[in-house]
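User: Let's play a game. I give you a shape written as tokens, and you guess the letters that built it. Ready? Here's round one.
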């Protein structure tokens, strides 16, 4: 983190004037995020799972939901809702990515409710449908297949029902 901040500082003094994007798996400690306050313009965290059991089973991180929610709250505190310029390009704010998993293993409805209630109904949500059962997915019976069109439609509906209005 220190090297990144030093490089950004040097680049800014040499004229760098573009939005800085922090692309994250969403498992960020608050201390590191505090160091980025005032530096990062756009946060793009994942919200992978709403349930500790899924976090443990698929990422060996039972604390993923709690760590992730605290991180997303801090990111939003720093940059607010996503702001787009006249051309539709992001200039500042929070854009959350959520990969829909088969059998609702990601807990899409719970994540959408958290975003709408605890962050902002104007949270920009990239609801992703590209899950493919690669790498170690075959070790988990519930992850051995892509999502169906019906599962994705349910995920979209649950995000809208939660009150979210901005989607990618």
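Assistant: Ready! My guess for every position:
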């Amino acid at each position: 983190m220190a090297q990144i901040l030093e490089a950004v500082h040097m680049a800014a003094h040499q004229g760098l004037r573009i939005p800085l994007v922090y692309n994250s798996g969403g498992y960020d400690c608050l201390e590191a995020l505090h160091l980025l306050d005032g530096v990062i313009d756009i946060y793009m965290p994942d919200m992978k799972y709403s349930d500790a059991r899924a976090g443990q089973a698929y990422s060996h991180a039972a604390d993923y939901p709690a760590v992730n929610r605290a991180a997303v709250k801090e990111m939003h505190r720093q940059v607010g809702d996503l702001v787009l310029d006249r051309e539709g390009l992001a200039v500042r704010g929070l854009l959350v990515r959520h990969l829909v998993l088969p059998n609702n293993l990601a807990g899409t409805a719970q994540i959408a409710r958290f975003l709408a209630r605890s962050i902002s109904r104007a949270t920009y949500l990239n609801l992703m449908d590209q899950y493919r059962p690669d790498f170690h997915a075959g070790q988990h019976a519930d992850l051995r297949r892509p999502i169906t069109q019906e599962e994705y439609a349910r995920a979209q509906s649950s995000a809208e029902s939660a009150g979210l209005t901005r989607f990618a």
